[in-house]
Design goal:
This is Glycosyltransferase. The structure is a single chain. The protein is of the alpha/beta class. The chain is built from 14 helices and 16 strands. The strands form 3 sheets. Strands 1-2-5-4-3-6-7 form a 7-stranded mixed sheet. The chain is globular.
Length: about 400
């Protein structure tokens, strides 16, 4: 099979896996790193993978991004300097990313990246499985984005993966965890040693967020200072407990007639969320605009961001809210919110599934909002420079001197 290279109209090179002597041209003086994620659809892990790839390529690394499908709403955010490698078959069957095993092996044999960073558990176990059978110098370093074992939406395939993780993760050269809580969950539920896990927070381009937050958006409540806007931005999934979110907002609006809710995003539970809104008679007070390409204007103009999740990893959306000074009320779920909000110093933490507590915290925040400058200062701790400095120290210790 010869490699084919094509333009997708968005800048980056899209290639199939090279198997002959016509491998992708690269500068031999630049270290090559590879990232592996199914696609670039809207999601926290996908956004993080893009941000890290973009950041490291500007620091002098050659970056390959391996994808099952070179598509998704976030595709336009990828740097033109990052090379996309689409692993055949582009439309994976029921076995999912496991269909890529022979092509991933071919890629690793030809390109020989210094490290492969699979994001999400499915690509991670496939990468670790193939690495067992290859005599390769590539370090396989999974990135764990959410607390292990807390997935309430696990499909039968997910459940199989969940059983394989404890067997294969100990074979990792190192594991990147996006938060201390995620690292703790791996130690508690797998044989992985804590010394084999490095916590590297997700980098967030806070200055770009602040710049985009100045752009106008077409939503009457966002631009209306007479409304108290309660916001959610994210995937509509069981993990987020948006049914509880809407029930908490009902209690808020019963106490504050000026309150309005915006639930932005999409996902498998969108119809259920809409049904809950209608059942509670909130259709005139809750807006569901779907996917929004600039959520930061919504954040900077909203009065409080409400997160009702049952579990997380390191929810980047909270850092984005801090970056523009948006007050936060969040469940104290595993894991991430407590870390980001400094044990409640930079936002209010409420027990999981406590709709009364969420409603009370929202009303209290609306009545007495925190200093936005203090929130913005906390977001700076997650800005790219300090985070990528940590990434480079990690690479030096675990990849280039291993």
């Amino acid at each position: 099979m010869d490699e084919s290279t094509l333009s997708d109209g968005a800048g980056s090179t899209v290639s199939t896996v090279p198997e002959q002597n016509n491998a992708i041209t690269m500068d031999d003086s630049r270290p090559l790193l590879a990232f592996f994620i199914p696609d670039l659809s809207v999601g926290g892990a996908e956004q993080v993978a893009i941000t890290i790839a973009n950041g490291l390529v500007t620091r002098g690394y050659d970056i390959d991004l391996l994808l099952s499908r070179a598509s998704g709403e976030l595709r336009s955010e990828l740097s033109e300097q990052v090379s996309i490698v689409e692993l055949p078959p582009s439309k994976t069957p029921v076995v999912g990313v496991a269909a890529h095993l022979p092509f991933l092996a071919a890629y690793l044999n030809r390109r020989k990246p210094a490290a492969l960073f699979p994001h999400l558990e499915h690509p991670s176990i496939v990468s670790l499985a193939i690495n067992r059978f290859l005599d390769a110098d590539t370090a396989v370093i999974p990135t764990q984005h959410s607390a292990f074992g807390h997935d309430v939406e696990a499909t039968p395939k997910d459940q199989i993966v969940r059983r394989i993780v404890p067997r294969l993760y100990p074979a990792s050269d190192q594991i990147v965890s996006v938060s201390e809580g995620v690292a703790d969950s791996l130690v508690d539920r797998t044989p992985v040693d804590r010394s084999d896990i490095s916590v590297l927070h997700n980098p967030v381009d806070v200055e770009q967020i602040r710049d985009r937050a100045r752009q106008p958006v077409e939503h009457e409540w966002v631009e209306n200072d007479d409304r108290d806007v309660v916001l959610f931005v994210g995937r509509h999934a069981r993990q987020k407990n948006l049914d509880g979110w809407v029930r908490a907002f009902e209690k808020v609006v019963n106490r504050n007639a000026n309150a309005r809710a915006i639930i932005a995003g999409k996902g498998p539970c969108r119809a259920q969320v809409q049904a809950t809104v209608e059942r509670l008679g909130l259709s005139d007070m809750v807006s569901l605009p779907g996917f929004v390409d600039n959520p930061y204007r919504y954040m900077t103009k909203s009065d409080v961001f409400l997160l009702s999740s049952r579990y997380e990893g390191l929810p980047t959306v909270l850092i984005e809210c801090l970056a523009v000074g948006c007050p936060i009320v969040s469940t104290d779920c595993p894991s991430g919110p407590r870390e980001i909000l400094s044990d409640g110093e930079h936002g209010t933490l409420v027990p999981i599934d406590d709709t009364n507590g969420l409603a009370n915290a929202v009303c209290d925040t609306l009545a007495d909002p925190p200093d936005p400058d203090r929130l913005r200062s906390r977001a700076d701790d997650f800005s790219p420079k300090p985070v990528f400095d940590e990434y480079e120290r990690f690479l030096e210790k675990h990849v280039f001197t291993a």
